[in-house]
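Quick one before lunch.
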Amino acid sequence: MNYDVIIAGASFAGLACAKVLAQRGCSVRVLERRADPGTGLHTTGILVHEAAELLELPAELYKPISQVRLYGPSLRHIELASSGYSFLATDTPALMRHLIQDAVESGAHFTLGTAFTHGKETGGRVIVNRGLASCRLLVGADGARSRVAATFALGQNRRFLLGVEVEYTGLTVDNPEAFHCFLDQRYAPGYIGWVIPGPKVMQVGLAAHHTQKPDMAAFTRHIAPLLHSQRPRIVGRRGGLIPVGGLAGPFCNDKVILVGDAAGTVSPLTAGGIHTALHYGNRLGELAAAYLHKNGPHPGDVLKHEYPRFQHKLLFRELFNRTPNWCFDAAIASPFAQPTAKAVFFLKKRLPPR
Ligand SMILES: Cc1cc2nc3c(=O)[nH]c(=O)nc-3n(C[C@H](O)[C@H](O)[C@H](O)COP(=O)(O)OP(=O)(O)OC[C@H]3O[C@@H](n4cnc5c(N)ncnc54)[C@H](O)[C@@H]3O)c2cc1C
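Model of the flavin-adenine dinucleotide complex:
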């Protein structure tokens, strides 16, 4: 079958792109290696306020969280709150199924349980998986270790955090309305630990430089005084790589373009990538539709000016990596902790103007 666009990967970036392309009259097929994109998740699924604004989500899919508790290594903490800004903890499996349904209703076609394995440019088209289908433009929305990027010798992510997360029922936490963040280089070197009271499960997670496997058992023992259990049960696990080295370049050629984690658009500071995946997935959909049907510019020529460069955030990441634990405890105790942490958590996440 011939399509205008084939997208590898049915997650935030691929689904946003597929929906916009289909709405604009393009023929689009999404290949996804998982048979059910609501299973085998790697993400915690917290949406920043601006990401939530890009989606119209039914209320049962999320729980707004407007408080953050930030802990130092000694478990001393500060409380942060914002009346005008909230995060959304999501029922992520249901959210993914909702986004797929949305794209299907817009006219996108899906082949689930089928990975992109092979691609070749020939006669002005890209032939995918040795003749399964062909397209005028191939989109790699296939995550941190993109097979599309490797196949077409595009830029690949080189620096990662490794995140692991356990989902519990029967567990509560002090202040169950807050997002609990733990600064501690012993358990989360290079990042944080977290506890999120989600809409259905309690999510306890940890991320660290990808060369060091996070020790969830030790972290859970460390934060045990804050957890209260009534017969806790582990009901799921999530985990995966978070690319934090900034934009992977080159991110496109004439017939192939990367978006989302495949392109490295995750914030190196916060390691959040859902907002940018949705935003640039939408944007690539608009640009690709105009390029294919209205003689618009090549999407890569536009996105090279729009994709984030993260220079400052990469510097902050280096600084964070070198911060010893005593500094975190001293910072939490200082009068500057509140305004600085509030700026990181609650400041509006602006993306480069279009
Ligand atoms: C543990 C963890 C927690 C995180 N928590 C948050 C958070 O709370 N908030 C936030 O903003 N960000 C978070 N992130 C980052 C965020 O999940 C990603 O930035 C976001 O999911 C990127 O979306 P994407 O669509 O680009 O890629 P992905 O979500 O990685 O999706 C890639 C898709 O491609 C599919 N795929 C892979 N290879 C192939 C192939 N060869 N063929 C076909 N399909 C393929 C995969 O199955 C997957 O569906 C977290 C990341 C991790 C690892």
